[in-house]
């Protein structure tokens, strides 16, 4: 089964590269066949990552301790709820959760806009696929959740796993990370529309109307995630309050603040045609801060109860953050 999960992620990565190229080329050449092919690939990526996620959840629930991830984050005595929560309780599983959510969002966006914004949608799809490809590189080659325990060249197993961190075995932790991730990942969509508008030099505000409700829903998810995290910190960590200015707590608050400003300022653009540059800049900063918050928990650069162990994965995130910042600064300045 672990081979099925690993292969599904690898094929999804290959498809994301194909769909990225097909979207850009199809958009530039106004080739509807290539654009349609890329959109179908987005649906296929979601299907493949759903298979990979199902394999991992099955291994967590079934106690397949041949997998390093299962042995490190579950044991036989854990309730089923926390075995499922172990999916996002560790480094490799949470990255797969990120990729799966992004593929679901991308498939939903492509389907909902299959007859609208036809000149811009190939570039919106391409912007989503850039992020998708980055996370799939991590899933497939850097932090695979399907790595097997091995002694020498022999695959082995253990009688029981280490179990999930006791601090994470609290009801809010079964909801807090998914809600926060729904916010983090969801901001990729308005960012992709902003990038698509810049790339196609779209002057109308039609794309804003397409993402306003989406942005509001994403903002609500992140708001709920932050509140649930505060409740967990108060009840379990014993910090003496709802907010201890933990670095990762602050990192989750920053994109919420910029997204709140974005929600208010897009109303000004829709009603009066003002603040266009400000809005594109705000949503770009919001998405960048979402990736930055994800980087903080995985790089080991800060000491936090939220942080995973020291890992070379931080260098990959730093490279992606620099490329993302450089690309958006260039696009915004060149389209002023």
Q: List segments where confidence is low: pLDDT < 50 over at least 5 consecutive residues.
A: none
Largest sheet: 2 strands, antiparallel
Kindly state the percentage of residues in helix. Answer: over 70%
Order of helices and strands: HHHHHHEEHHHHHH
The pLDDT mean sits at: 88
Strand order of the largest sheet: 1-2
Give the structural class.
mainly alpha
Query: Quaternary arrangement of the chains shown?
Result: single chain
The termini sit apart by: 52 Å
CA radius of gyration: 20 Å
Query: What's the number of helices?
Result: 12
Q: Give a count of the beta strands, DSSP E runs of length 2 or more.
A: 2
Can you walk through the features of this model?
- This protein is mostly helical.
- 72% of the residues lie in helices and 1% in strands.
- It has twelve helices and two strands, in the order ααααααββαααααα.
- It has helices at residues 2-29, 32-62, 68-73, 80-85, 91-112, 121-142, 176-186, 188-199, 206-237, 247-272, 276-299, 313-334; strands at 150-151, 154-155.
- The protein has a two-stranded antiparallel sheet.
- The radius of gyration is 20 Å and the shape is globular.
- The termini are far apart.
């Amino acid at each position: 089964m672990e081979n099925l999960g690993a292969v599904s992620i690898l094929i999804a990565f290959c498809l994301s590269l194909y769909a990225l190229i097909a979207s850009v080329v199809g958009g530039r050449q106004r080739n509807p066949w290539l654009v349609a092919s890329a959109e179908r690939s987005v649906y296929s990526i979601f299907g493949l990552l759903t298979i990979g996620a199902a394999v991992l959840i099955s291994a967590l629930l079934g106690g397949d301790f041949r997998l390093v991830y299962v042995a490190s984050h579950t044991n036989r005595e854990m309730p089923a709820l926390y075995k499922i929560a172990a999916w996002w309780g560790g480094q490799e599983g949470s990255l797969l959760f990120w990729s799966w959510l992004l593929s679901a969002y991308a498939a939903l966006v492509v389907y909902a806009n299959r007859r609208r914004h036809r000149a811009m949608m190939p570039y919106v799809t391409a912007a989503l696929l850039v992020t998708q490809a980055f996370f799939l590189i991590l899933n497939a080659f850097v932090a695979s959740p399907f790595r097997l325990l091995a002694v020498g060249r022999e695959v082995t197993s253990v009688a029981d796993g280490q179990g999930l961190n006791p601090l994470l075995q609290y009801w809010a932790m079964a909801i807090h990370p998914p809600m926060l991730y729904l916010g983090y990942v969801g901001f990729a969509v308005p960012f992709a529309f902003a990038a698509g508008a810049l790339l196609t030099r779209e002057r109308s505000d039609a794309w804003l109307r397409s993402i306003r409700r989406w942005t509001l829903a994403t903002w609500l998810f992140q708001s709920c995630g932050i509140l649930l995290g505060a409740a967990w910190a108060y009840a379990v960590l014993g910090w003496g309050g709802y907010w201890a200015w933990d670095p990762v707590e602050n990192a989750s608050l920053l994109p919420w603040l910029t997204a709140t400003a974005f929600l208010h300022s897009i109303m000004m653009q829709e009603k009066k045609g003002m603040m266009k540059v400000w809005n594109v800049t705000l949503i770009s900063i919001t998405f960048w801060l979402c990736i930055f918050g994800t980087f903080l928990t995985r790089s080991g650069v800060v000491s936090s109860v939220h942080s995973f162990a020291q890992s070379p994965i931080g260098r990959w995130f730093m490279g992606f953050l620099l490329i993302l910042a450089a690309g958006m600064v260039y696009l915004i300045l060149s389209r002023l």
